[in-house]
Amino acid sequence: EGLNAHFQERIDAEEKIEPKDWMPEKYRKNLIRQISQHAHSEVIGMQPEGNWITRAPTLHRKAVLLAKVQDEAGHGLYLYSSAETMGITREELIESLHDGSAKYAQIFNYPTLSWADMGAIGWLVDGAAIVNQVSLQRTSYGPYARSMVRICKEESFHQRQGYHILMTLMEGSTEQKAMAQDAVNRFWWPSLMMFGPHDADSAHSAQSMKWKVKRQTNDELRQKFVDQSVEQAEAIGLTLPDPDLVWNEERGHFDFGEIDWAEFDRVVSGSGHCNRERVAHHRRAHDEGSWVRDAICAYEEKKRSREVA
Amino acid sequence: EGLNAHFQERIDAEEKIEPKDWMPEKYRKNLIRQISQHAHSEVIGMQPEGNWITRAPTLHRKAVLLAKVQDEAGHGLYLYSSAETMGITREELIESLHDGSAKYAQIFNYPTLSWADMGAIGWLVDGAAIVNQVSLQRTSYGPYARSMVRICKEESFHQRQGYHILMTLMEGSTEQKAMAQDAVNRFWWPSLMMFGPHDADSAHSAQSMKWKVKRQTNDELRQKFVDQSVEQAEAIGLTLPDPDLVWNEERGHFDFGEIDWAEFDRVVSGSGHCNRERVAHHRRAHDEGSWVRDAICAYEEKKRSREVA
Amino acid sequence: MKERDIDQTISVYALRLGDDALILGHRLSEWCSNGPFLEEDLALTNVALDYVGRARNFLNYAAQLRGNGSTEDSLAYQRDCRDFTNFLMHELPRGDFAFTLARQYLLDEYEALFLAELLKSKDSDLAGIAAKSAKETSYHLRRSREWMLRLGGGTDESHRRLQLALDELTGYTTELFEMDDLERDLCEIGVAVDRSALFDRWFSAVSKTFAEANVTLPPASWAVKGGRIGFHTEHLGHLLAELQYVQRAYPGCRW
Amino acid sequence: MKERDIDQTISVYALRLGDDALILGHRLSEWCSNGPFLEEDLALTNVALDYVGRARNFLNYAAQLRGNGSTEDSLAYQRDCRDFTNFLMHELPRGDFAFTLARQYLLDEYEALFLAELLKSKDSDLAGIAAKSAKETSYHLRRSREWMLRLGGGTDESHRRLQLALDELTGYTTELFEMDDLERDLCEIGVAVDRSALFDRWFSAVSKTFAEANVTLPPASWAVKGGRIGFHTEHLGHLLAELQYVQRAYPGCRW
Asked: Do B114 and D82 touch (CB under 8 A)?
């Protein structure tokens, strides 16, 4: 009890919790869940964009996309390391991904169907991620907060690059404009879903706010994202696919339509276009790589025994 | 001795040798070698053309190409059956293909690099094959001769289809014409090599002629092919890549340049673009299919035992 | 609907059926020289050929109604991923032999029922294509059904692979039986088939076969759909890159 | 040679080097999300990125000399298989991890020697690109060499796979060291590298590594060549279908 109270005092005083500090078991579990979900999202997120690296329409765009996906791998690494500070191994994290007990962002279960999707993902998906991550820079767990600082710097590049892809398309041919609008039509609502259920329906929210694992609620963050996106869309002639989107003078925010939570549930429960494939892809690569990992272990082992001898 | 003499008498009298007839061991071996090489050529020949089925430029051409490759599979089946009449099994034939002891036509070690290659293969490669096969319709071994009759009918379709592909290209854009000419440049000499070494250098020829396994010599058949090809090339504006090609009034045939036998030997000895891949492809498909073949056996076995019970 | 509108609607309908045939035919044609033995190579190529033929018939009719210089080839080679309207099941990679044959069997049972209805279409062109196709499909079905029994009743390995294929495929069957307004409208005037009405017969047929083969088509706890509105899997784009390369690289040529 | 002819010859030379980098970069980029563990995914993507950058530098220079509105992108996206001049080894499918790393190591040793010479080219653009590339390659080489030791000295399985990869690759190394007239001419005026002169040093370097890794590069009893004259394997066409699809499907657009 005393430990718990002291822990909460530290949180309230905006102290960062560090790996060796005492923490409630639920806090630990909650964070492992959140960080691992975040890590897996970076890693699984390599697939929908990786799908277009070999088809990028210019060498410049190809280089930028490659660099971006590389950054995502890097983010995955930071985040796995953060999670590992809580006493879970990478192998365990990967196992949970494969057996379905760990999640990743649902948006990566949507397929990438045109080059414009690289723009929409950069602009909207990375955009939504940043809104969330900026807020998480002040999360109470030290290693996680520090990961977020590093990640945020890179993500804002990604968002600008995505936006630039769409801008270029919107300045192009009729077909290109249609391609850009179509991508935004498909990714807008799933991006809003990225912030999670409404605050009232959010299972983990209240406790997470108290522990300052989360610093702003789902709905606050979502509103922020909507507000910033409307202006950006208008600037390049894109229409956001929501007839209810309108400026609310009184609130000082944009009102927007209700999210189709049935669709969200459908995707969560396995009916997204790519649910099975994303995990199967990861599992295949992991399985195909097992002989390589074994080889390194054996090699290092031999080296050590030679050094001892 | 008496058997041998009697056998040769039958051959000389143009009687067909049938599976149950006595035959010299060397005749049997020679024929197995020749029929299996022919069968394997049909089967391996599916690969270079199969390489363009998914990229055929019109649906009509795709259907024609599919039908052609299907015919090749069919020819492979007839020929394996002919070989099997001489007491060798399909599995043994395939094993010899995989271990390199059985050959297939060297021309299939050349890669198909453009759509025009489908034209060149049909016109030249099938064209050369027909010249050979027409002659083999009168070969002394009955089952083989009958296979040839069936096969020749279909092959002449294939040749016309190939020629038609080239004709269409030659009526097309500058790029299409160049594509057609390039394909002919690459496939002309290898087609001439299909008839094998000069008669003087041919290891098996004399005995094969005596047994009427072969009815015309390599050089006779090659000359026939050259003569017919020159006119066909001219008709659609293609140039055969041989500066020495010229009409010889006295011989009543076209003279042509010397084949680059060093190149032929290079390809035979493993330096063709596709030697390793053709066999590896066949082996992979065969290995991947082993569980299917096992399943049929097990299923038939179970059915039989149910019927007995 | 006005005459002109009806024609355009039928054109879209024929396009859908053509896309189904084209894309499945493509996947089947990938088996060429990759079959488990030569007879099967020949048989799979043969089915592929039937589907390419069917695609040509439907696309040709769609092009004719569409006008504006459309041809079977412009429809096959000059539309991008989002314009294709085939069911998602058809575009899934060929997988192993069990996957290809399980998909084929599920679709053969579906096609047999579908074509038997399309035969009665008031649109005589569609009815004519259906007549020709139905004969092919009855042959395909005999073959693919036999393979279900062989694989299900063969070895442990073949049984395992077949069951795995069905686990993967089940969620893609849902959209085969879902109608949209366009098809409902055409259905009302006796042109299109009410696919939703085929489900019970289909399910009972496949259930019977799978019971005999000792495997199960898992209940649809998930369903991926969108083919008819061009919402595809990531596989189709790669397929089209290959299918369309020559036409795209040398535009405006005759071949 | 006349000034103008020299420029055009150098343009072809730069194009060759650009094609090598572009095609190998493509194969490496296919590893994205397919590596054996995340660090390696990152590392392979990084090498791919270096090669794409190198391709851009060479192709850009080739385009500049070529004129007529050529750009790095028109060269990468608007030529067909027969116009590409990369070595055949670069276009072979990625294979397993052992194959990709063995190819990379063979090429890294080659590139290290080649770039060290190109650094001294009288053509300052080529020398400049070489300088930047040489730094990258020395990093790549350290990595790929280490992997040869790890795989050769790891498990029986990794040793077997590495040896298999070398058996497959050996015949493709010959053309790395064969000169044609064009390169000989440029060599004479101090622009190009005499690749034939690199063989001994290359062979001694790889032999040393392979001895340490307990594998062998089999003697070249066969040699497949033709990349520099556009006589490719069947793999390149499929690679290009993917690489060029978007540009081909929507011609004349900015991206």
From this structure: yes
> How far from chain centre, in Å, is Cα B232?
21
The C-alpha of D222 sits at a distance from chain B's nearest C-alpha, in angstroms, of 5
Please tell me the predicted confidence (pLDDT) of residue B304.
92
Kindly state the tokens that stand for C46. 């043969």
Residue A16, classed as helix, strand or coil, is coil
Interatomic CA distance for residues C199 and C218, integer angstroms: 15
Q: What is the pLDDT of residue B307?
A: 85
Over residues D41-61, the pLDDT tens digits come to 999 999 999 999 999 999 999
**Cα dist from D51 to C169, D94, D169, whole Å:** 40, 15, 20
Which ipTM score applies to this complex? 0.96
Structure tokens at D121: 């080219």
Query: What secondary structure does DSSP assign to B87-128, as a single string?
Result: T--HHHHHHHHHHTSS---GGGGSPP-STHHHHHIIIIIHHH
Interface contact C253, partner D, CB < 8 A: no
Question: In chain B, what is the greatest distance between 2 CA atoms, to the nearest angstrom?
Answer: 78
CB C4 within 8 A of CB C180: no
CATH architecture entry for C3-249: Up-down Bundle (1.20)
pLDDT of residue A57: 98
* pLDDT tens digits, one per residue of A162-217: 999 999 999 999 999 999 999 999 999 999 999 999 988 877 778 889 999 989 99
E strand segments, A155-305: 246-248, 253-255
3-state secondary structure B230-281: HHHHHHCCCCCCCCCCEEECCCCEEECCCCCHHHHHHHHHHHCCCHHHHHHH
Task: Using CB atoms, pick whichever of C73, C153, C255 lies closest to residue B299.
Answer: C153
Does the structure show a pLDDT above 80 at A118?
A: yes
Q: Is the pLDDT of residue A284 over 80?
A: yes
**Touch between B and A (at least 3 CB pairs under 8 Å):** no
DSSP character at residue B16 = P
